[in-house]
Amino acid sequence: MPLLYPKVKPSPLQKANLCSRVFFWWLNPLFKIGHKRRLKVDDMYSVLPEDRSQSLGEELQGYWDQEVERAQKDAQEPSLMKAIIKCYWKSYLALGMLTFLEEGTRVVQPILLGKIVSYVENYHLAGSATLHEAYGYVAGLSACVLMWAILHHLYFFHIQRVGMRLRVAVCHMIYHKTLRLSSSAMGKTTTGQIVNLLSNNVNKFDQVTMFLHYLWVGPLQAIAVTALLWMEIGISCLAGMAVLIILMLLQSSFGMLFSSLRSKTAALTDDRIRTMSEVITGIRTIKMCAWEDSLEDLIFNMRKKELYKILRSSCLQGMNLASFFAVSKIMIFVTFLTNVLLDNVITASQVFVVVTLFEALRFASTLYFPMAVEKVADAFVSIQRIKNFLLLDEIPQLLPQLPSDGKTIVNLQDFTAFWNKASETPTLQGLSFTVRPGELLAVVGPVGAGKSSLLSAVLGELPPSQGKLNVHGRIAYVSQQPWVFSGTVRSNILFGKKYEKERYEEVIRACSLEEDLQLLKDGDLTEIGDGGTPLSGGQKARVSLARAVYQDADIYLLDDPLSAVDTGVSRHLFKQCICQALHEKITILVTHQLQYLKETSQILILKDGRIMQKGTYAKFPKSGVDFEDILLKKENEEAESSPDAAHEDEETENIQVAQSQERPLKRKIGFETYKDYFTDETHWSVIIFLSLVNIAAQVAYVLQDWWLAFWANEQSALHDTLFGKGSIIVTFDPDWYFIVYSVLTVGTILFGILRSLLMFYVLLKSSKTVHEDMVMTILRVPVSFFDRNPIGRILNRFSNDTGYMDDLLPQIFQEFIQAFLLVISVVGVMVAVIPWILIPLIPLGIVFYVLWQYFSETSRDVKHLECATQSPVFSHLASSLQGLWTIRAYKAEQKFQKLFDAHQDLHSEAWFLLLTTSQWLALYLDITCAIFVTVVAFVSLILAENLDAGRVGLVLSLTLTLMGMLQCCIRQSVEAENMMVSVQRVIEYRDLREEGSWMFNRQAPPLWPSKGEIRFDGVSFRPISDSRLVLKDLTTVIESGEKVGIVGRTGAGKSSLIAALFRFSKPAGNIHIDEILTTQLGVKDLRMNISTIPQEPFLFSGAMRKNLDPFNVHKDEELWDALEEVQLKKAIEDLPGKMDSELAESGLNLSVGQRQLVCLARAILKKSQILIIDKATSNVDPRTEELIQKKIREKFAAALC
Fold first, then answer.
1. Pure H helices in 884-1013
2. pLDDT category of residue 3 using cuts at 50, 70 and 90
3. Under 8 Å between Cβ of 157 and 915
4. Is the pLDDT of residue 909 over 90?
5. Could you tell me the pTM of the whole model?
6. Which of 26, 441, 667, 1089 lies at a CB distance of 3.0 to 4.6 Å from 12, suitable for a disulfide?
7. DSSP SS3 for 233
8. Nearest-CA neighbor of 372 among 251, 199, 264?
């Protein structure tokens, strides 16, 4: 397979010098491009060699394999946590030193601030030596602030990169495991669960790595601050620190609860994504049966349960954010309360040293520490879920497939096997046969006899419980439901083999694909999308067969490849392909085409997993053979069949539906998107109330600082009045000042908690509404939408984007609003206290705005690219799961692993740019802030004569607060906008054009259609708006009770006729059913009154009862009667749960024939006067086909298509 994403643009980081790496100068060319135009995939830099998915995954896989081996020796359960620690502990520990130094510089800042305030406080006593000393303190403060900015962003860049590497490595391992899952393990997991692991669970690694170090840095910083406070104010500091300790213990208990909630939430998310995956896969069946309402209710109930758990965990997140907002004020309050009660004396400089030291704890101990507890709990749940997946059973070690050396053979001796080990009845029992080169073994039998299971056993997918299996030779496999992957027709046939023109053309001829390729727009270079669009069912079957033939294997396992094609093509494939092209090979053919049995070397008749008869056609006894009558009947039919039979009955038409690239969204997220998201379900009054609560919380917060400065200045003025000079504050009438201070503190706490909880509630309610709207729209968009968009792209909205809306968006919005209001209030207080500070503030604001504008253009593009490049990862996973047996049969696991790694590397390119561009902005914002702090500090010294200590202390402490908060505010605004890209993507799907009115005012009459007469009057039809007309001026009448067969060549319009009847696209002309014009009815009324049995039977995971009766309108007796009618009653009664037995995803624990019978039972229950059958007997044996036809004649007296 060719390199998927050839890259010619190496990352400039590889050759960047030290300064360029520290200050991110290597990103400047990208920002220039982003400023001029929209970024494209080609603008991204190649992923760095050390960040490639393959190398990272193989490294971690090695540690995991060692851990599994160790655990087996010690009879313990392996720990994925230990494997991760062994792989990453060295690099991660080294980065811990950076954060230790960073937080060390933060602790030093309050001491230097205290020295500066002390100088202003004692300005009238200061000499020139003291002034020089003060300038030294200011220079030290400036150096500390600048060093903190550089260390902080250097740390976050490298630590996020570690998180990215860990996530990529675990994704590689998950896909690696997926390719090796046994069939029993596949029953324990679903596509939805694996997609959830790859989208939501692994994202926790990006988050936990950022904050994990603060679990030890936070307490260490708290100890250092306690020591400094003790030196400043003595024992009073312990009261404030006690608050911090209690809070940390409380947050730790929150973490335990958070872990439990996350575990339950993840299981509910798995179910929802699994259901959506099945909905997308079976959308045609859903639309034909008009199940949209039932599925909406099912998904909404799942979502309701999921959101209930998310809301509870969000409350804990809200409490953590509220504690970050208020805890420093509580600590200051408790400390000064204790100080007052102990009658201690405190100077003005000490007041602001205490305040600033507590503020220094604000991030590490009161934000990052609880975040670390929360993220560790999250990561623990994710690691446990991923570990459980990695410990699922793998396929047993396959027997060596020896090169072709004349000794190739397939030999089974007394072979017995169980799909379900708990079952008492074996799937295959006592099978013995041998097939040698040049022999063709035909396997026949009724539905559920074990024919496909026999091929699974030869493949190694079904391990033996007893007996022997010898398979020598390379295997090629053609599955019963043909599988193709996204790519060209040619790449599907070559499947990684070198293109040899002569051999390739021979294979095309043998598989009767020449004419079909000529009909396709680009021939064999036509792109195939998910599900094989634009190929028909028969074409997919022949492409799958051509893939097998081109491999030139030794052993061919063909699972009923002739059922999807008509008699003429079937005869061509059997003669030219199976008998001629494969005449020297070992061929095992499962078939229901009994007319070919006389040309086979051996015949194996299976029933209930046992061999009923075995031998050659010529030696078969004429009596006692289970299929004798049907064999004779089929021979006669074959003799009478016309050699000029229709080319084949195709499932869909040859419509050129291009596999579209993901349409880029608007570059800038407009006000309408925010308005839609916030007010879709929430009334404006709630939004206004939330705004007022936010403002009230911030006013109370800022007034605390102002009141403290006012208190200090009033007492200083009183002291100067009483004693003329000095620096000791005389406490006077403390009750008045303390009561006001207490009220402000309580207000800060209450309003802070209320706004956090309210914000999370409002945003989760919005997420619920937008998700529900998207589900309703997706269920009602035209079928062509699913042909144009791969399953991974659609699932990405329901997994990754919805996960962002649920988890990250509320938190980031809350952090942004807190930071924004804090910045506004801090700036307001600073200007009110010292008006001249506006002079440096104005250029600071201008610089910030310019940086933000310059950055946001590129940032939005990178976020769009990041979202878009993740979709192919999910699509590739879903496709691989569908074709797992084929991939393993061809030994193509390594090729598909490389494709997955290529998709991952492309996503890593976007992700790496996302985190580096964010750090670029944050770094330059903080450097600008550091310059601002320096200017304010030096000017304060120059104007010390005209300023009092309280004002200088307040402004400098607020400036240091502003240092972190201003860049935090800007960065969180960008992050919020980036998260809103997910909202924009979901809203894009919510606003898709629906296929037609779901319900009209005019409803179908009761018992309509009573006769079942269909009249086509000048009907022209194109499946999608920009395609050619397939039906042209069709006029015909199908009378009530008629049995009508529709035949025709590929592209004749057979499936389009059915699509027009079901109104998958609005036809021109008129279609009347019982004299009612179908376009005057809603699509629900129309489709609910027509029964259908599709060619590709589709079932949902869940109870058999739910698959038969999704609306719960039938009694149990009716369900059992319907199953008895289709000869499935015994098979269902043998299941452990009978009617409530859980079906695997897509009904995979039933054979294809059994699934078709379930669809027939469903149609019988519907009791419609019109039944549409789309080759529904293609995968059943002749006897079952005769049964189906008999039941149809008995149960349906209406028109049949």
1. 884-889, 893-942, 949-990
2. very low
3. yes
4. yes
5. 0.82
6. 26
7. helix
8. 251
